[in-house]
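Run: sequence + beta-D-glucopyranose -> complex structure.
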Amino acid sequence: MTLAALCGVAAPDVTAPWEDPARPLSERADALVAALTRDEKIALLTGGPGPVIKAIPRLHLPAVRMSDGPLGLKMKTEAGQLASVRTTSFPAGMALAASFDVPLIQEIGAAIGRECRANGVDLLLGPSVNIYRVPQCGRNYEYFGEDPYLAGELAVGYTLGLQAQGVMASVKHFAANNQEYDRYRGNSVVDERTLQEIYFPAFRAVVQRAGIASVMTAHNPLNGIHCSDNGWLLTDVLRQQWGFEGFVVSDWYSTYETVPVVKGGVDLEMPIARALAAPRIEAELHAGTVTEVEIDAKVRRIARACLQLGIYGPGRSTAAPVDAATHRQLVLRAAREGLVLLKNRAHLLPLDRQQTRRIVVLGELAAQTPYHGGGAASVPAHESRSLVADISAAAGAGAQVRHFTALDSADASQQCADADVVVVAAGFPAAIEGEAHDRPFDLLPAQVELIRRASTLNPRTVVVLVTGGGVNISPWLEPVAALVHAWYLGDGCGHVVGELLFGDFCPSGRLPISIERTWADAPARANYDTMRSEQLAERLFKPAYEAKYGKIDPRDFFPINYAEGIFVGYRHYDAKDIAPLFPFGFGLSYTTFGYSNLTIANRDRQIDISVDLTNTGARTGAEVVQLYVGAVQPRVPRPPRELKGFARIELQPGQTRRVSFMLGADDLAFFDPKSHGWRTDAGDYAISVAASSRDLRLTRTIHWPQ
Ligand code: BGC
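>> structure
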């Protein structure tokens, strides 16, 4: 009796060769392609109705259901409305990145995977790994920051966790989708070295180290060719250079003409049949401009991934039960680890509960605290609360917490002046920061005014930032006593900031971005059109965009010049010797850490690095030990140093732990556009263990031989 029959499931004969798990995957995929009719194969190339890969009932292939993420499972109905299913809303990618905690991200990936399985979702549209290039990008909040190594490590953890549950991941958006305004026409003009060193590594990492099932294209053209038509991107780089064996899904509606999409390398067009619609494919097959071999290759890649994850064929493991309490703990842990304390004048924080009885909380966002930015990545939160509720709960019984949206009355000003502490919430709600449009670098004028007035009235003023990236902090920072970057925290929203302020845990988040002192210092300042971005601030998804501006001619675009090249984020600040306001990797703690006994053994093309980390303060806390490497006299322009390792280590007061890293030739390499390959030059390399990109604690130089 077959396995399916034993489980009481109606299924085809498992003796069909593609069903036999004992056979090699590639043979099974071939066999499945051979079993499909031409019509069935063409049907598999386009999604819908609803977010699915179509079912093939004749062969008992189920519809493969997909859902947005990556910050949790976003359940929608067939009609595209939010479903009333309770799933966990995890903190923004930026908050997760600030934790620098790969095992945590892997657990979150697994938790999302379990929720997918429990809700019949087989493909989760994430992780999102585009690099933070400009603070204005509306989708920064769902990404993992400015550093390709950090983004790659986190994305690998996320993908391994998710796919271990039998759920396919789809890394997005490939490639160079780093701003949102007029995103269907913004042509990212990026040289090959910059793509390979900055914008590709996180994608390559999930392909090569996590065996990711799927890659999603980006809406934008890249170097003059739309990503979904881009054969260099999807075939030469992704498949040939990196060995990707999964399937490529088009970003929603970002396909244009049939032949370029077929040749370019998209396997699955979403969300509905347009370029790959059956009549159009048939016509091209008939004309000989497209071949059945090309169609088969696409179907084979989809089939292979679905067979590999057990979505097709017998033996789909039973969905593990979702333990809501565990997921709740995970959200809170991630939210705590993601908070970054940026300023703490004269140790105002942590607040003493006995002494902090009158609290004033200010700002609209304190009462309506956004749990995510807007767009696809926003996953409804069921446990989120306001910052006012958060602080009231943390302050404890007897504390008087007053909230004002503005300081527009004598009472409000008096309360503010008399308070033991004032907390101002500032940042952007989901209507301003989110997908399909960009947001300003400056906070809204009313918020700046509120911060200024509050800090004039009361020197014990703390600002809590609720936004997915950097904002213009310099104009109002000086009089403010303390500053916390709280990002968006999903279901953790409204539960952890008060705990941080009152010292229930030690802050340990570190910035996954550099925050510029002024926009004039920013690496992409000359290559980002602030005026156009502000003019086009309306949120327009493709169907609405086309309704307003007409169908897009795929050759009609405007350039976004990535003229800063590889010098993104701290790579720029370090190379130009400009001090950012807050550097990449920075974050304060309530305890202190000492670094000592750095040893580096450099033999047989392997560099072993170890250092002692000691908690030299009085509180238990975690440090993020960062490892930076830089060529001392490079033959081509290179960043002075680049992140090549990190470890989040929690220690009790007085405790010491030895922390080790290993580097190889690849970690010293740069991409050589002449040979179109990676190259490690012989020479000296400075290796630093650091508390931030600007706080190098111990440095040694090693020689890498020829
Ligand atoms: C977004 C994707 C998302 C898809 C489905 C697109 O517009 O760019 O990230 O997965 O919509 O919602």
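>> summary
Residues 68, 125, 172-173, 251-252, 376 surround beta-D-glucopyranose (CB under 6 Å). Residues 1-12 have pLDDT under 50 and may be disordered.
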